[in-house]
Design a protein that fits this description.
By secondary structure, the chain is of the alpha+beta class. The chain has 2 domains: 137 residues, no CATH class; 147 residues. Helix content is 47%, strand content 9%. It starts with 6 loop residues before the first helix and ends with a strand. Its main location: membrane.
Length: 332
């Protein structure tokens, strides 16, 4: 597929509309993709995968979202049991704490589910914040268990972390029991820290995936424009004349693209003492059958670039193409 029109194509294009236009009046524009920077975002990139590159990070977050939903159901069940116990007259039921815990679980699970639905990285921040706080607390306990296991034994310190045995209340005061229990808790806490770091890594990878994907789309929308390559203006022309434009839909990769930029040489003509072009309008050519028809306002004396809003594109006026090119043609 050609990137721009050749000289023969330009002559054929002019002959389609008649021979009243000089060859130098044709302004050649390359393919839109020639000027649009390609995005380096790849959905299947290894940096967006987890579980030893087995699954995508988005799939991993879906699994985490399922686990959060199950946790919320368990918290709801615990709240229901505490509420029933409170209705029976018991006072140590912790109804308020279980209800707050249930609401917080629903909030975190809902934010993760919303992130998966909307593909927005910001909704993953509450879960990562919760895991980071939990990781900090686990590290504090990990250091405390190391101190109990390796350094001087104190029954008062051990009683804070280890419960008393119902059948032997004095067992906690024995160094062997405290050392054994501290090593067990040290292993459990270390495993929890490793799992938390792993979960944070999965969610952070998905957060980066959503961020890069959205940034790539926004970059394509902001940079959706054409840089026009212009041939010399018509020789011996001092009267203003209109331009006919055919803009390829290749310049509009997404319906949400912001603008396609059309560049005019009006400033050059003003510097040469020639009047600027009076108006721009769109027409079709056989070299670009996929086109849009747009009414463009005239360029002012101070304008050398005109930004064309893509929101004015009429979908009913878009057709298929085999060659994407933007052709500017002057008429007498």
């Amino acid at each position: 597929m050609r990137d721009s029109l050749s000289a023969d194509d330009s002559l054929s294009f002019m002959s389609e509309f008649g021979n009243d236009v000089d060859e130098d009046a044709v302004i050649e524009i390359g393919r839109a993709s020639q000027y649009q920077p390609r995005s380096d975002f790849e959905d299947s990139d290894k940096k967006y995968r987890c579980l030893c590159n087995i699954v995508h990070s988005e799939t991993g977050v879906k699994i985490i979202a399922g686990m959060l939903c199950l946790t919320a159901l368990v918290e709801l069940w615990a709240f229901s049991l505490n509420l029933l116990a409170w209705s029976d007259g018991k006072t140590d039921t912790h109804v308020q704490s279980s209800f707050i815990q249930f609401l917080f679980g629903c909030f975190v699970a809902g934010s993760v589910i919303l992130a998966l639905i909307k593909k927005r990285s910001g909704y993953l921040v509450p879960y990562m914040a919760m895991q980071i706080v939990g990781l900090a607390c686990a590290c504090i306990f990990f250091v405390a268990f190391i101190y109990i296991a390796l350094f001087e034994f104190e029954p008062e310190t051990a009683s804070v972390f280890f419960p008393k045995q119902q059948w032997n209340p004095t067992a906690i005061t024995k160094p062997n029991y405290a050392n054994y229990a501290s090593f067990v808790m040290l292993f459990i806490t270390g495993a929890l820290i490793a799992i938390q770091i792993w979960l944070i890594d999965i969610v952070f990878t998905c957060w980066r995936y959503f961020r890069d994907k959205r940034t790539s789309v926004l970059r394509e929308q902001r940079q959706n424009y054409l840089n026009c390559k212009q041939l010399p203006p018509v020789r011996g022309t001092t009267q203003p004349y209109p331009l006919r434009v055919c803009i390829s839909v290749d310049a509009i990769p997404t319906p949400r693209a912001h603008a396609a930029r059309l560049t005019s040489n009006s400033a050059d003509r003003i510097d040469k003492g020639e009047p600027p072009r009076s108006r721009l309008e769109t027409v079709a050519s056989k070299y670009s059958k996929r086109f849009v028809l747009l009414d463009l306002p005239p360029l002012h004396h101070s304008q050398s670039t005109y930004t064309l809003p893509i929101s004015r594109v009429q979908p009913s006026r878009v057709y298929s193409t085999s060659l994407g090119a933007l052709n500017l043609r002057t008429t007498a």
